[in-house]
Amino acid sequence: MQKMLTIISNVLRGSASRNGAELVSEGARVVVSARTYADFTPQATFDIKKCDLHKLEEGPPLQAVLTREEGLQYYRTMQTMRRMELKADQLYKQKIIRGFCHLYDGQEACAVGIEAGINLSDHLITAYRAHGYTLTRGGTVREIMAELTGRRGGIAKGKGGSMHMYTKHFYGGNGIVGAQVPLGAGVALACKYLGKNELCVCLYGDGAANQGQIFETYNMASLWKLPCIFICENNKYGMGTSVERAAASTDYYKRGDFIPGLRLDGMDVLCVREATKFAAEHCRSGKGPILMELQTYRYHGHSMSDPGVSYRTREEIQEVRSKSDPISMLKDRMLSNNMASVEELKEIDVEVRKEIEDAAQFATTDPEPPLDDLCNHIFYNDHPMEVRGINPWSKLKSVS
Amino acid sequence: MAYLRSILRSGKNGVPAVLRREFHRTLPAAMQVTVRDAIKEAMDEELERDERVFLLGEEVALFEGAYKVTRGLWKKYGDKRIIDTPIAEIGFTGIAVGAAMAGLRPVVEYMSFNFSMQSVDHIINSAAKTYYMSGGLQPVSIVFRGPNGAAPGVAAQHAQCFAAWYGHVPGLKVVSPWSAEDAKGLLKSAIRDDNPVVFLENEIMYSVPFEMSEESQSKDFLIPIGKAKIERKGNHVTLVSHSHVVSRCMDAAAVLAKDGIECEVINLRTIRPMDMEAIETSVMKTKHLITVEGGWPQFGVGGEILARIMEGPGFGYLNAPAVRVTGVDIPMPYAKLLEENTLPQIKDIVFSVKKMLNV
């Protein structure tokens, strides 16, 4: 009987991934589902590390509840992000991606945890290490990769590249270090102005944390009680400069001074999620901005032109990979609590790999944007105009 | 309306004195309005028309504007729509651009455009380029306004003209009004425009009154961005100018008219996109071109106009090489005598016209 059910469930899982569940007979499906649910723990509670607090009486809870569905979803998204970035690395080395390419692998728990703590109707802005956020904010792997390769199917029609990707309620992708912070506070101002109970998550790195405009923004966000969650992704290095060499104070969560702050483990997706929920509650209750520092790590160098080993040791990178990898951490939690099976997770890996391959295929075969798109999208909602070309006889057309 | 006008025309005896005075006040088809008030009227009307429009800048609310341009607006619209900022240009410009990205329509005031240099990264990298970089996904509807260029006695750090700097950037519209009508119609267009507009006012012009036509008093009076205006028709030479220097050109034209030289004075109104067609049409008629501006000569507005004339149909019509009259290529000095000799005066324009025409 057991063997029979195993066969049925394998067949069903196989067919389910091909064409949904139509092939399943009602009785068998019920039996298999019952077996699936009986097999796995539907949810579990995990202890998470306490956050360091600044100007806060209490912080996020010390325990997080993770359901099986949530776990599988976080796993899939983080794995997709990881594979996507590694594929980008490959394409860059093949010179199919050009220019700047700042990869996010190692930091997946931040993007996924943050999104789990807010709604899609909230807003988010970050700097140039943005591929992960483009994904969590609704972009598809295809559109992201095709933008990296500069094709017409790219999320910005091939006109932006790695650092300039946008989706609904996601404002990029910003190339100028620190500029995204006042922009994010401005989005928060619009949230408050329009009264829709939305907030803005505004991300920056440990390098950007020393920018003057960030302090101007802290002041105004606090003065005007803007619903803004400032998040510093501290991956310990601003390009090639370690935090100790760049900052007189590396307590980035305290830098907001009059703004309450939290410092937490950015490699633990549950920690990030709980802290984000806590911060979102703070903002939505009208208390004004709040600051979160996520301690995280990037495996790659600053960008593809940086091997990443002249200012840190390979041992350090290896140590983080083996002891604190965010995907491994989640996987271990789920497996050891019987929330998923090794096969199930392997299958997700296979599906993810396929999705990335398809996307890469698209990204390398989709044609580049047509030349007559060159001068379009200068102005929005405007009549067509002429743009001067390279020589005086070259008059190019521009439409909105 | 016509009936009332006819009463007045019939003379003082036609109507009792008291009644007459009342009609006079409510009647005039045209009225005198200063540039400052025209700018304020434009903002007032647009604030009323669209809930998403709001103002921010230093001293715009309680202080009623460093140059009193926003007087009365905070009392009328309150804290939510008229926002006093701390002295943090790059911060509040970024905040304004972010608010525009999220769907609001901010009007950012710089106490003078000299301070916008702190914010230039946001004006160009966050505002001007974004619609293009996003492949048409993210528009930015925002106006950056404030006094630009020379003002009496303010010295080097407070007197720079930014028309050429901002005019250089694709993705920006750059407007430089002269008269009260210009200011009102163009600012309303700028606020209604869904793109980043740099609106260059001038402190010298704020208190200058102009006659505003009846048409311009309507709440939907708009002047299209990108169209120049011929302020004075003439056949002998084309003077192209913008902002406060247009006044100088008009004065110089009056002086030259006494010598039988008729200047055609073109008020550019918009620096980018520039109305080359108006300039070319005029040059084809007058066959002589002088650009007049307060900004520095090198890489200036005049330089651009001359290059385009060279490259376009107008060149074949010129009877003399086109020239530029500009501010002197130095930081603005303080002493009155030195300052006066740094900007184009009436005599400089007259001299240049006569030299070009060989008279």
TrEMBL record, chain A:
The places in or outside the cell where this protein is found are: Mitochondrion matrix
Entry keyword annotation includes Oxidoreductase = yes
- InterPro entries recorded: DH_E1, PDH_E1_Alpha_Subunit, Pyrv_DH_E1_asu_subgrp-y, THDP-binding
Q: What Pfam family is a match, any one?
A: E1_dh
Protein keywords? Carbohydrate metabolism, Glucose metabolism, Magnesium, Metal-binding, Mitochondrion, Oxidoreductase, Phosphoprotein, Pyruvate, Thiamine pyrophosphate, Transit peptide
Q: Name one GO molecular function term.
A: metal ion binding
Give me the segments passing through the membrane: none
Q: Where is the Dehydrogenase E1 component domain?
A: 76-370
Q: Does the keyword DNA repair apply?
A: no
Q: Which cofactor does it need?
A: thiamine diphosphate; Mg(2+)
Q: What is its EC number?
A: 1.2.4.1
GO biological process terms on file: glucose metabolic process; pyruvate decarboxylation to acetyl-CoA
Q: Which reaction does it catalyse?
A: N(6)-[(R)-lipoyl]-L-lysyl-[protein] + pyruvate + H(+) = N(6)-[(R)-S(8)-acetyldihydrolipoyl]-L-lysyl-[protein] + CO2
Which GO cellular component terms, listed alphabetically, does the Swiss-Prot or TrEMBL entry include?
mitochondrial matrix
Q: Which domain of life is it from?
A: Eukaryota
The main place the protein resides is mitochondrion
Q: Which NCBIfam families does UniProt cross-reference here?
A: PDH_E1_alph_y (TIGR03182)
Q: What does this protein do?
A: The pyruvate dehydrogenase complex catalyzes the overall conversion of pyruvate to acetyl-CoA and CO(2), and thereby links the glycolytic pathway to the tricarboxylic cycle.
What is the protein name stated in its UniProt record? Pyruvate dehydrogenase E1 component subunit alpha
What organism, scientifically named, is this protein from?
A: Carassius auratus (Goldfish)
The organism's lineage? Eukaryota, Metazoa, Chordata, Craniata, Vertebrata
What's the gene? LOC113091397
From TrEMBL, chain B:
BP GO annotations: glucose metabolic process; pyruvate decarboxylation to acetyl-CoA
Q: Which cofactor does it need?
A: thiamine diphosphate
| Enzyme Commission no | 1.2.4.1
Q: Which residues form the Transketolase-like pyrimidine-binding domain?
A: 33-208
Question: Where is the protein found, in the record's own terms?
Answer: Mitochondrion
One MF annotation (Gene Ontology) recorded for this entry: metal ion binding
Q: Which residues form a coiled coil?
A: none
Pfam name, any one: Transket_pyr
- Give the multimer and partner information: Heterotetramer of two PDHA1 and two PDHB subunits. The heterotetramer interacts with DLAT, and is part of the multimeric pyruvate dehydrogenase complex that contains multiple copies of pyruvate dehydrogenase (E1), dihydrolipoamide acetyltransferase (DLAT, E2) and lipoamide dehydrogenase (DLD, E3). These subunits are bound to an inner core composed of about 48 DLAT and 12 PDHX molecules. Interacts with DLAT.
Name used for this protein in its record: Pyruvate dehydrogenase E1 component subunit beta
